[in-house]
C-alpha cells in the first residue's frame, strides 16, 4: 500500500483498537445504559459509528469502482495527508449535532452484533482503501454534510477522527458517576 494510505489506515486502525479496548470488557447492560433519556448509550455510539463508516465506505467504493472501470491513472503523490482535516477539529468538536437520519443509531443491539458489524464494516473499508491505492485521492472530492467538499483522503481520515471523537464520548459515559459497575461475570451470576 502507498505510504500515504498506509499511514491513514494505521490511524483508523489505532482508533479502532482504542475503541475496542474501551468496550470489550463491558456487559450488555453497560452498553445499553444511558445517563439521560436524551443521551446515547455506548451501544448506540457503536451503532452510529458502524452506520457512518458504512455510508462513508459506500462513497469510497463507488469511486474505486468508477476509477477502475474508466482505467483512470493518477498515481498518488508522496507526502502525508494526516493533518489535512485538522482545521475542522473533528476530534474535539464540543457542539452536539443532531445526527442525520441515515446515521441515527438503533438502541438495544446486542454486543455480539455491534462488534460483528464494526468488524465487518472495517474489513470492507480496508478492502476499498486497498482498491484506491493506485490513485491520487486529492483529485477526487465528495461533499461532507458538515465540512463541505473534501477529498477522498480526507473522507478516510474523517472516519478515524470521527471515531476518536466518539471514543471520548464513550470515555465520558464510562466516567459518569451513575454508570453501572456490572461486569459480564456478575451479570451471569445474577441470571
Keywords:
mainly alpha; elongated; 191 residues; 6 helices; 4% strand
Overall description:
The protein has helices at residues 3-23, 28-32, 42-69, 111-131, 152-175, 184-190; strands at 141-144, 148-151. It is mainly alpha-helical. A two-stranded antiparallel ribbon has the order 1-2. Strand 1 and strand 2 form a beta hairpin. Helix 3 packs parallel to helix 4 and helix 3 (42-69) packs antiparallel against helix 5.
Topology:
Blueprint: H1 3-23, H2 28-32, H3 42-69, H4 111-131, E1 141-144, E2 148-151, H5 152-175, H6 184-190
Antiparallel strand pairs: 1-2
Helix pairs in contact: 1-5, 3-4, 3-5
Reading the helices and strands in chain order gives: HHHHEEHH
Rg is: 18 Å
The CATH C-level name is: Mainly Alpha
Tell me the CATH superfamily.
dinb family like domain
Count of individual helical segments: 6
Distance between the termini: 49 Å
Q: Provide the low-confidence segments as ranges.
A: none
Quick structural overview:
This protein is mainly α. It has helices spanning 3-23, 28-32, 42-69, 111-131, 152-175, 184-190; strands spanning 141-144, 148-151. The chain has a single domain (3-190), classed as Four Helix Bundle (Hemerythrin (Met), subunit A).
